[in-house]
Amino acid sequence: MRLPRETLIAPGADPSVVGVVEWRGRPLPIMDLRLLLDLAPLDPLRNVIVAELGGRPVGLGIEAVGSILRLEQVRIDPVPAAINQGDGETQVVSIARPPRGGLVAVLSTARLFSVARAAAISEQPLAERAQHTLNEPRSPHLLFQLADETYGLALDGVEAIAEVPATMTRLPSAPAFIVGVADRRGEAMPVIDQGARLDLPAAAKGKVIVTRVRGAGLAAFRVDAILGIQSLGASQITPSPRLGAASASFRNVAAVGDDRHLILLAHAEDLLATAERDILRSATTASL
């Protein structure tokens, strides 16, 4: 298939991940085949081959599609032993000899991915979207923007939306993503730049989303913009592909709008990793 013009970029994803798109009603992670093979890019990616990895679909981004070869078994040879010598094992599983001449390397999806990378992609089942019904469960989400991407936060974890506090106290030795601590009705409220935490481009002043994070207490997350509230049906939401450590902040993806583009969804307790909650709690306590 053609590479979609827009893909959902998962923060913290493996460098080979191009993005995620909806394919036949479920999320499809697309990987850059050139990076998986340690090849230098020559032209832009234009096409996607949908393959299978651990029983789950995965897209392989390529520069161009050639012809489809239908070869007799006698024209397919094993890889020479010399190629498989050394510490690693080549991703090429056989060598094909087309009638028109030349050689074609035959790849194996299983060998393209390291054990860790394969587990990250196929660990969570990409559940089929249930058939939409009028009485399906729905959940409101607050949509917000970071860089050029739209994200959603379950509304039940949101206490308020506010301006970025004008006065904040900087915390010595705190991680860069902790902007400072502000007072909110007599309670210390750390302000976290969620874009900086996810290594996204520097955020505008924007707004803050005030939440209570389990294990860290009151916290405000600075985002570029608030886009509104949208009620999402169960059939729109599927588990998010596991594409890296930072992407664990987002449990699910949802297909929204007439074009059914994908957005990442989170719950308040997922916005910080356990270690970050500990750091935040200690830093906030020290500021009191």
List the keywords.
OB fold (Dihydrolipoamide Acetyltransferase, E2P); 288 residues; 6-stranded mixed β-sheet; elongated; 2 domains; 5-stranded mixed β-sheet; 5 helices; mainly beta
Describe this entry's structure for a reader.
With 288 residues, the protein is mainly β. 12% of the residues lie in helices and 39% in strands. It has a 6-stranded mixed sheet, with no helix packed on it. The termini are far apart. The model is unreliable at 122-134 (pLDDT under 50).
Question: What structural category do the secondary elements indicate?
Answer: mainly beta
Q: What pattern of helices and strands is seen along the backbone?
A: EEHEEEEEHHEEEEEHEEEEEEH
CATH topology of the largest domain: OB fold (Dihydrolipoamide Acetyltransferase, E2P)
Tell me the count of domains.
2
- Overall mean pLDDT: 77
Task: Specify the helix fraction band.
Answer: 10-25%
SSE order and pairing:
Layout lengths: L16 E7 L2 E7 H4 L10 E7 L2 E7 L13 E3 L13 E5 L7 E4 L1 H4 L2 H8 L15 E9 L2 E6 L3 E6 L14 E7 L2 E7 H4 L9 E7 L3 E7 L1 E9 L3 E3 L12 E5 L4 E6 L7 H14 L1
Parallel strand pairs: 2-4, 9-18, 12-14
Antiparallel strand pairs: 1-2, 3-4, 5-6, 6-7, 8-9, 8-15, 10-13, 11-12, 13-14, 16-17, 17-18
